[in-house]
């Protein structure tokens, strides 16, 4: 495990004005910390076991998540579920959340195309992610992709060199760095997609060691 000197906006906050994630979720319902609430259908808060040893952090809800109000239930979520299972991780015993809790999109005809949240939006939403981590006190946080990594450990920690590593920030749970499952969905070449999928499962396997069967 490698020690890191920086904290991202979520871990740096050190706030938790609630006893449980259910209470926190209620507080977040009316969130207007950034403008993303204006066009989203609803907030998509984290969900999962209150005693979860592992917290999985994605980027932001997609179209399906925005409509259902639940994280990782669309195509990236299905792929994540398969990879978690293959790695021996039980999603039911994890807590699954996002760096940003409202769907950001660009309308294109009838479709809503995913738009990447910017650093300001991630910083504003870090209030909720930081509080979720503080309440749950997990054994491990898994950063799925660059936005989650930014929220947890800040701009100096880069995904590519740290991918697959577990980083230990001071006074906070360790962070396993890996890719976002939607990265796999974008790879055209089948062999390369399979190679990357296996590498992702192998990263997740490190988290499975923290969650005994
Ligand atoms: N991508 C994410 O990062 N989070 C979700 O909940 C769905 C897709």
UniProtKB/TrEMBL annotation:
Asked whether the keyword Signal is assigned, the reply is no
Record bears the keyword 4Fe-4S: yes
- Which top-rank group of organisms is this from? Bacteria
Family membership noted in the UniProt record: Belongs to the uracil-DNA glycosylase (UDG) superfamily. Type 4 (UDGa) family.
User: Where does the Uracil-DNA glycosylase-like domain start and stop, copy by copy?
Assistant: 45-205
Q: Which InterPro entries match?
A: UDG_Type-4/5, Ura-DNA_glyco_family4, Uracil-DNA_glycosylase-like, Uracil-DNA_glycosylase-like_sf
Keywords associated with the record: 4Fe-4S, DNA damage, DNA repair, Hydrolase, Iron, Iron-sulfur, Metal-binding
What's this protein's name?
Type-4 uracil-DNA glycosylase
Query: Which SMART domains does the record match to this protein?
Result: UDG (SM00986), UreE_C (SM00987)
């Amino acid at each position: 495990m490698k020690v890191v000197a920086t904290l991202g906006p979520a871990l740096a906050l050190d706030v938790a004005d609630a006893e449980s994630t259910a209470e926190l979720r209620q507080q977040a319902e009316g969130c207007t910390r950034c403008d993303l609430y204006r066009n989203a259908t609803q907030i998509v808060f984290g969900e999962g076991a209150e005693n979860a040893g592992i917290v999985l952090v994605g980027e932001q809800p997609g179209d399906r998540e925005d409509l259902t109000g639940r994280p990782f239930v669309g195509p990236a979520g299905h792929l994540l579920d398969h990879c978690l299972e293959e790695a021996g991780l039980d999603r039911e015993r994890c807590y699954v959340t996002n760096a940003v809790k409202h769907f950001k999109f660009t309308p294109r005809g009838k479709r809503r195309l995913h738009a990447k949240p910017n650093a300001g939006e991630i910083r504003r939403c870090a209030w909720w992610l930081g509080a979720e981590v503080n309440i749950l006190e997990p054994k491990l946080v898994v950063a799925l992709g660059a936005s989650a990594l930014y929220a947890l450990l800040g701009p100096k920690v880069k995904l590519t060199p740290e991918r697959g590593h577990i980083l230990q920030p001071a006074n906070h749970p360790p962070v396993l760095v890996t890719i976002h499952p939607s990265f796999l969905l974008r790879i055209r070449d089948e062999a390369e997609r399979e190679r990357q999928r296996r590498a992702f499962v192998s990263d997740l396997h490190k988290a499975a060691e923290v969650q005994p069967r």
